[in-house]
Amino acid sequence: MPEQEPEPTTAAERLRRALFRPSRKQVVAGVLLAVLGFAAVTQVRLTGTDDTYSGLREQDLIDLLDGLAGTRQRTEGEISRLEDVAAGLRDDSTKRQTALDQADAEVDQLNILAGLVPVTGPGIRLTITEDDGRVELASLLDTIEELRTVRAEAIAINGKVRVVAQTSFTETDGGFLVDGERIEAPYVIDVIGEPGVLSGAIDFALGPKKQLEDDGARVQVRELRTVDIEAVARQDEPRYAVPGEGQ
């Protein structure tokens, strides 16, 4: 039986066969293309997530690190400077407050010494009673001076007159005028200071107590923990003196 010749195939038929029944070579080529595609995608992803500095040269990285170190040093230097400024301000504030406190203390001390404010503190009460005679002005003045000598901080007589450096004493009938204020016996002198020292300034031999007793007076000295002096000195406005320039 004679062999039949194969029917000729059309181009469409050949394409259909190639698609639905691929040859071995076509399969191998497809696998290679898939592997290459996967590798390309992976490289793109790795490149996209790479660090920003990966493309810099070594010298560029060194320069960058040096710049960062310099910035840190400048920042630390500025912080140190600001801390020094703050410490200086605190120090200035402390010095200013110390100066103000010292000035206030000096004002208070001057007000006390000038007799311008009521005061309280330890001291003595000296009571002079005229029994057999009259107290002489000189004896009263010596008593005041002895108390001042031992640093009496405040003196008042009969609770009415504050005795200060410029206080005037004048003898008058039945008593004395102290800064124009009349006082009469018994004379009660309140003094603030060290009690033992103040009483010693009155009691020593041939001292004020002996003088007053020679005048015919009786003298009593009491040391007290607290002496209250309410009397303040009279302030006279200056008639001639004015502050100097720059004061």
TrEMBL record:
GO cellular component: plasma membrane
Name of one Pfam family that matches: DUF881
Gene3D superfamilies referenced in this protein's UniProt entry, alphabetically: Protein of unknown function DUF881
Organism domain of life: Bacteria
Annotated family: Belongs to the UPF0749 family.
PANTHER family (UniProt xref): UPF0749 PROTEIN RV1825 (PTHR37313), UPF0749 PROTEIN YLXX (PTHR37313:SF2)
Protein name listed in UniProt: DUF881 domain-containing protein
Gene source species: Nocardioides simplex (Arthrobacter simplex)
Lineage, highest ranks first: Bacteria, Bacillati, Actinomycetota, Actinomycetes, Propionibacteriales
